[in-house]
Amino acid sequence: MRAQFVLSEIGVGLRRNLTMTFAVIVSVALSLALFGGALLMRNQVSEMKSFWYDKVNISIYFCNKNDAETGVPQCGKGAVTADQKKQVEADLKKMDVVESVFYENADQAFKHYKEQFGDTPMANVITPDQMQESFRVKLKDPQKYKVVATAFAGRDGVQSVEDQRSILDQLFELMNGMNIAALFLMGLMLVIALMLIVNTVRVSAFSRRRETGIMRLVGASSFYIQAPFIMEAAVAGLIGGAFACVLLILGRYFLIDHGLALADKMELVQFIGWDAVLTKLPLVLAISLLMPALAAFFALRKYLKV
């Protein structure tokens, strides 16, 4: 097969259906940018989980004198006693899953509360004696939270056992929901892109039906006839994939490093690095090349029977 002939036919086909080719490029670019963004979002959630789950603590809050008045069952005997605190601490240190235990008294809890909520009206009426003493428990494996919760929840003197992961899980669920929405939109855009590719190939094949008819008469093979059409679709898809890669790079650059500069504004969030973005680009380019080529191949089986 002459490469020059195939390349010339590709150029003719792309110019002849310029509007539809442009629509294919745009739809492929948007759909694959959403695809890459969804993959990066999944990486971001995993990165944040691994970063935060290792830092969250379990808080064991003790009863104070106010809890007895509110009807909390395990606080019915009044505020926690020194013996009860010592027993809880001893039991915690015996557990294999516990890495360290930090005690926070009422004054320290009040100080932390003022630091976080000092500007709210409630902060003006809260007093140190209303704050709860607690043990902040660091686990070797944060996934083993239920072991500690089961052992201490409902014990006399223990008002509640809280896992800070529950707060983070709500954020991760929101991000996963956004990821699913992006994947759904990506799927919709891919369907549109495939329909445009098939229609573009059909129009191109119809407009060159006399040329392909002559090629049949002179004994050209099916692959020789179909190759320019398939490569037209592949080239258009590859251009769209290249634009998708540019969008992913610009998105990472302007959202995290510059522009919005989320990395500077949200220092407590561990954002994905450039390596995560760069590793997705070959996959995006491969899909942008193979998807249109396969779509064109199956469309041509019907419209260019040889």
Please give the alpha-carbon distance between the first and last residues.
17 Å
Residue-averaged pLDDT: 78
* Series of H and E elements: HHEHHEHEHEHHHHH
Rough outline? rod-shaped
What is the strand content? 5-15%
How does the helix and strand content classify structurally?
A: alpha+beta
The total of beta strands comes to 4
Tell me the quaternary state. Answer: single chain
Question: Largest sheet, order of strands side by side?
Answer: 2-3-1-4
Helix content: 55-70%
> Over the alpha carbons, how many angstroms does the gyration radius reach?
31 Å
The largest pleated sheet is described as: 4 strands, antiparallel
* Uncertain segments: none
Number of helical stretches of at least 4 residues: 11
What would you note in describing this structure?
The mean pLDDT is 78. Helix 2 packs antiparallel against helix 11. With 306 residues, this protein is α+β, with helices and mostly antiparallel strands. It starts with a helix and ends with a helix. It has a 4-stranded antiparallel sheet. Helix content is 69%, strand content 8%. It is rod-shaped and about 100 Å long. It has helices at 3-16, 18-53, 65-70, 82-94, 106-117, 145-152, 165-207, 209-217, 222-257, 262-265, 274-303; strands at 58-62, 98-104, 134-139, 158-163.
Question: Can you give keywords for this protein?
Answer:
4 strands, rod-shaped, 4-stranded antiparallel β-sheet, alpha+beta, 11 helices, 8% strand, 306 residues
